[in-house]
Specification:
The complex is a heterotrimer of chains A (135), B (247) and C (297). Chain A is built from six helices and two strands, in the order H-H-H-H-E-E-H-H. Chain A is mostly helical and 135 residues long. Chain A has a two-stranded antiparallel ribbon. In chain A, strand 1 and strand 2 form a beta hairpin. The N terminus of chain A is likely disordered. Chain B has 247 residues and is mainly alpha-helical. Chain B has two domains: 175 residues, no CATH class; 35 residues. Chain B is 73% helix and 5% strand. In chain B, helix 1 runs parallel beside helix 5. Chain C is elongated and about 65 Å long. The model of chain C has no long low-confidence stretch (mean pLDDT 92). The longest helix of chain C is centred in the middle third of the chain and has 17 residues. In chain C, helix 4 runs antiparallel to helix 5. Classes of the chains: A mainly alpha (135), B mainly alpha (247), C alpha/beta (297). Chains in contact: A-C, B-C. Chains B and C meet through helix 1, helix 4 and helix 5 of B and helix 2 and helix 3 of C. Chain C: Keywords: ATP-binding, Nucleotide-binding. Chain C: One of its GO terms (molecular function) is ATP binding. Chain C: It holds the Pfam family ABC_tran.
Chain lengths: 135, 247, 297
């Protein structure tokens, strides 16, 4: 397995306040999302991850186990961990239900603080969406 | 899992001993320096007797290695004190040791140093005579010495040096227990000797001298010295055994 | 298996307790960070574990043996700090050779490789090294010895940042290849936290916390917002740290007993607390830190 250490460091340092094991699991999710890790492909071991990110292997294991608990990865005894068949869908669903929901929550709260009306907020969302769509 | 090493005391003592020979190489170079100085003192002759008549003057100088031995004993004492000081103890505890192996390897080192000191002191006795013959133009009447006698001489000299170093080792260890001993022990010693000489018809020091130095049986002498050094080293070891290091 | 077990460990100097009734144990093949302020007793604890000094009372077991005066513990452990001294007569390469003769797992290739990488002249002498170089050299010995218990007391003292980074990476790589139990003390928790599995936090010679680093990071949260709202929400909770910003804003650190929603509903901001900050807060004597001094003036 090849990886770029410089790249790895950038990813980890992006959000220093998030626990590293969460960052690890999110990084693996992203690897699955962008197709670097396919279904039934073996993922990095805790030791490889530890080496890549200069982190304790126990921390790396915690990140992996988080994904096993969510059935995004599955364990094969003695062989390691593999990407589940439905991994991509599960990640999409999770990010929809969790990340997106959280972001919307924050958005609405901030709008409330700034006393922005619902219509105004919807207007802003639509404008942003058309901009992304045009790219 | 990393397998644990079972610690063998003999092996550790041996390694510590070899480590000390390397680490204290300076002690041996200072030995050479001290003996050269002692030789220069000796060249004047140890004992001198002369008779003269109106026709001629006769001077008999007897050369011996006594001054060299005395200097070497002081060297042994100082070397022993040195290795009890904190930095030297800490060298041991940088690597594998406990207090017993540290002491045992120190004793082995001092035995080696004493042997070396003994050999060089006795041989330097010959050097003095030869130097006197060549450089000062004295006629040499050397007492023949058999190899056996030479060896006994070397062993005896080494034992004296070892005794000196065992005294130094105890003194050094006591100084580590409390700095006060650095002043208290010499003060007590000098005070005691002074009073002893002043008031005692048969001073202790003279008895000590007779006990150790005027001993005609070599075996008895050997036993006396070995017992004495063993007691001194043993006491030091017990004292050091409860002490902290690298603090 | 437990490599270190301390029960009621106490050490007093001149009747003043330095370690006060410490009870903890360290699992095999873990990297534990020993964190505490200056004078908290970190070095004393590590030196007791190494067998250098003797406990006043309580029980200490290292590899199931009392470490003080134990040849077994000495043979299986190494204590590295910047005070480590070597005979001045020995060159650096000779020191490596001597070290190799004492430790059965010694890796001379690693030692020489690291010495070369960090630009040491093999013919140089240890007492001529600068402060940072001394620490680097001592750490090389600590790594290459591969002792089942490796104790590193402030190993990076004086090292520049690049060397510290390199050292931490070397430590982790060698640990991955040859797992062992490592105790590392440092003032810079933020630098070493990624390496650690567990954190042992001591304050005034007492154990304050001993838990996995990942739990430590979620152990507390920061809440920021209008002062009265923060106080209302955190009512009854112990404030680990508080800082009043401006007229009506307050930042408080509390144990993580609150749901995110609960905080946001109250119109407050929830922030994670960095492990290193938390340790500073926990070991402060006052809740407001240095500001308390000025507030009382």
């Amino acid at each position: 397995m090849h990886y770029n250490r410089e790249e790895a460091e950038v990813i980890l340092n992006a959000d220093g306040s998030k626990p590293i094991y969460v960052q690890i699991s999110e990084w693996i999710e992203t690897e699955i999302m962008n197709g670097h890790l396919e279904s039934d492909q073996k993922v990095y071991s805790q030791y490889q991850l530890a080496e890549m990110y200069t982190i304790n292997p126990a921390t790396a294991a915690k990140g992996l186990n988080l994904l096993v608990d969510e059935n995004i990865l599955y364990k094969k005894r003695g062989l390691g961990m593999f990407v589940s068949q439905m991994a991509k869908e599960m990640i999409v669903n999770k990010r929809k239900s969790q990340t997106l929901k959280r972001l919307v929550q924050e958005l609405v709260l901030e709008a409330h603080r700034l006393q922005i009306s619902e219509a105004e907020l919807m207007e802003m969302i639509k404008a942003e969406q058309s901009e992304v769509g045009n790219e | 899992m990393m397998s644990l090493t079972s610690a063998n005391m003999n092996v550790v003592v041996k390694r510590q001993y070899l480590f000390k020979l390397k680490a204290n190489i300076d002690a041996f170079s200072s030995l050479i320096g001290i003996q050269v100085i002692a030789l220069l003192f000796s060249l004047g002759g140890m004992g001198m007797s002369g008779s003269s008549s109106s026709y001629f003057t006769l001077t008999v100088r007897s050369y011996s290695a006594d001054v060299v031995l005395a200097f070497t004993m002081i060297w042994g004492l100082v070397t022993a004190i040195t290795i009890t000081t904190r930095p030297y103890r800490n060298f041991d505890f940088t690597f594998v040791t406990n207090r017993l192996t540290s002491n045992l390897s120190n004793v082995l080192f001092l035995v080696t140093a004493s042997l070396l000191g003994g050999v060089t002191s006795i041989l330097s006795g010959y050097l003095v005579r030869v130097a006197g013959y060549f450089f000062l133009g004295h006629t040499l009447y050397s007492s023949e010495m058999a190899v056996g006698e030479l060896i006994i001489g070397i062993i005896a000299a080494s034992l004296y040096i070892l005794t000196a170093s065992s005294i130094g080792y105890l003194f050094g260890t006591l100084a580590q227990v409390s700095k006060a001993f650095i002043i208290v022990i010499p003060a007590l010693l000098i005070g005691f000797l002074f009073l002893d000489i002043s008031f005692n018809p048969m001073p202790i020091q003279q008895e000590i001298y007779q006990f150790y130095f005027i001993e005609s049986s070599f075996i008895l002498f050997l036993i006396k010295i070995l017992l004495t050094t063993a007691i001194l080293f043993g006491t030091s070891s017990i004292l050091f055994n409860r002490m902290g290091v690298r603090q | 298996m437990k490599v270190i077990e301390c029960t009621g460990l106490t050490k007093t100097y001149l009747r003043k307790p330095v370690l006060n009734n410490l009870t903890f144990s360290i699992e095999e093949n873990t990297i534990t960070g020993l964190i505490g302020r200056n004078g908290a007793g970190k070095t004393t604890l590590l030196k007791i574990l190494a067998g250098f000094i003797q406990e006043t009372s309580g029980k200490v077991r290292v590899f199931d043996d009392g470490p003080f005066n134990s040849l077994f513990v000495s043979a299986n452990s190494i204590f590295v700090d910047d005070q480590m001294i070597f005979p001045p007569a020995l060159q650096l390469q000779e020191i490596l050779e001597v070290a190799g003769s004492f430790y059965p797992n010694w890796d001379m290739k690693l030692a020489k490789g690291l010495a070369k990488y960090f630009d040491f002249d093999p013919k140089n002498y240890h007492n001529r090294l600068s402060k940072g170089k001394t620490s680097t050299f001592n750490s090389i010995i600590g790594l290459a010895a591969r002792c089942p218990l490796t104790i590193l007391d402030e190993p990076t003292t004086g090292m520049d940042e690049a060397v510290r980074k390199d050292f931490y990476r070397a430590l982790l790589k060698d640990y991955l290849a040859h797992p062992r139990t490592i105790m590392i003390s440092s003032h810079h928790l933020n630098e070493i936290e990624d390496l650690l599995e567990d954190v042992l936090l001591i304050k005034d010679g007492k154990k304050h916390l001993h838990l996995p680093i990942s739990e430590l990071k979620e152990w507390a949260i920061g809440i920021k917002g209008p002062t009265e709202k923060v106080l209302e929400l955190t009512n009854g909770e112990e404030l680990i740290y508080e800082n009043r910003i401006g007229a009506g804003t307050m930042y408080a650190v509390v144990k993580n007993n609150f749901a995110t929603l609960e905080i946001e509903k109250a119109g407050l901001e929830r922030t994670p607390v960095r492990a290193s900050d938390l340790c500073v807060y926990l070991t402060n004597d006052s809740r407001g830190g240095i500001d308390d001094v000025f507030n009382q003036c």
